[in-house]
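Example 159.
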Amino acid sequence: MNARTALKACLALCCIAAACGLALGNVVINEIELSAPNNASIWAEIYNSGTEPVDLTGWMVKIVDGPWAGPIELSGQIGPSGFVVAEGDPRWTPGINATVYLYDSAGNLIDRTYELSDSAQNDFTWSRIPDGKDTDTRADFAYFMGSKGRSNGSGSIRL
Ligand SMILES: [Ca+2]
Ligand SMILES: [Ca+2]
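Predicted structure in complex with calcium ion:
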């Protein structure tokens, strides 16, 4: 391998590494409150299961219910094993059957939930147990005692 070929190979590897560095698959929708007690706002919790901080500038959570679709803009950073709560608009009516989407700053779909039902107006939420569980099945989420902005594994009461 001559120097030029070696350089090309190196650049190709660098491109792959850069592309991998942009893979933001470690951030997920971790918990969703669609029906809070006392008519409090709907919210979604984001979790970073990776080992690097992720810049959430320009990211968006979108909660899509039958009669409405609510975008929530994110900002700041989410650290490794960190949690960020996206607060919904107080005017959004409690969800009955809602699907939640997470988009990055380029508009790529990073995560989506299955359609989730909740109209009980209590402290229970749809939560990934444990945090970040992502098998792309409905079993990723369980209806558990809410843990807004902290681990879904602590203080949870198993039904
Ligand atoms: Ca609830
Ligand atoms: Ca939580």
